[in-house]
Amino acid sequence: MALEDTRTLRFFNRGPSAVARLVFFSVLSLLLLFVDARYQYLESTRQVISIIIYPFQRLTALPGEMWDGANAFISLQSHLVADNEQLHLRHDADSAQLKQMETVLSENAQLRALLEIKQRAEYSVQAAQIVYLERDIFKRKLFVDAGEQNGVQAGRAVVDNSGVVGQVTRTYPYLSEVTLVTDKDNVVPVQVVRTGLRAAVFGSGNISELELRYQPVDVDIQAGDELVTSGMDGTYPPALPIAKVIRVERDPAYPFARIACVPLAGVDRHRTLLIVSGVPTLPPRPAADDAHGTAVPGKKAPRRGTP
Amino acid sequence: MRHQMTMDREFLLPASRRFILASFIAAVLLEWLPWHGMALVLRPDFVGLLLLYWCTHKPHRVGIGIGWMLGIFVDVADASLFGQHALAYSVLAFGGLALNRRVQMFSLKEQSVHVFVLLLASYGVYALVHWQVRGYVEWSYFLGSLTSALLWAPLTLLIQTLRRPRRNPNEL
Question: Of A95, A115, A135, which one is at a domain's C-terminal end?
């Protein structure tokens, strides 16, 4: 039997006591917390550690990938044929629609040229696979397998085939962290398709709900209205579908209506997401006049006490 | 009395450095599996639980320092603030060290209750930091401490089986 096991069990035979250690490491943690929450100094450390643990992270994603792979491998041929046929049909329908859209696009370009409106941006997309979903129930985040090495930058919008998923908030060499639009207090500038009303939609922290805040009780919004991004802050390209209004509560006792929306993008339905790039940067915002401090649209937590 | 004897012997079982390291890697991998939705809410804190196990069973080997380092790794993987898990695991490790003498007297059921309280404290620390920084707490988060405590007995039995030295097949 090893010698250490026969010793009398004191907390530590050498070195400082357990309490001293606890105090030391707690202070160290609090210091790190403070620095990380307030400043950006620790990003490089985070990057280094993330490279070390990257292989392990990929390893944990392996069972899911293998399951998918096995499913694909043993799927019946008749299924594949049916699938293929369906895809062909859809492709035909889509290409017809695309032709139509090309005409509309050229017409639109012509009209815009006539009106001398700056070209609406065209953007390119880059596919990325979800490596894993949120780790922490406090946060609505996921990781995709495209990182700095693939040219992804923080701030890029992330979409799937049905709507906006979120925004890249941090990049690692081989991974990117995507914050979902449903993350608590995440703000996206939107526009109501039916009326053209501009508003901001806020994440609720619940994966299947968004809130349209700060709209007066008599606002013209109905259940079933579709919301698209307005492209106001330059982060999200304009006219991407994002959510659908499901419930409007108008209580005259409160200054604002309570409007609940459901996000259109299904994070739990696909493995592949698209990262939007090439959104043109807007001209820089003129410095705000000190006399009237204006609220920045993309800012977290609305400022309290502003008249 | 016999129960007491077996328990004591369990505490004297050897554990190599390599075994402890491997167990931690296994726990981290389990924690990194793609948990989702309700499973994520109920996901036990494998790393925290294992840390507690080694702190109570091998306090000379695993202590607050190792808990803190594990916390930093988990912080990076979870994209939480630096030090958030580290602080929670330091508190947990301290609780484990404090429990070390006492835990040998208890049956697994009684141990689980103690472990639940310690895990609750550690979860509380994590939630407190989150509340300070981001201003809200999700109460369902604390469900994880309950599932973790329920996992204590199976985990203890599993690791003790793995630690028991293999008998020599040629022995009579």
Answer: A115
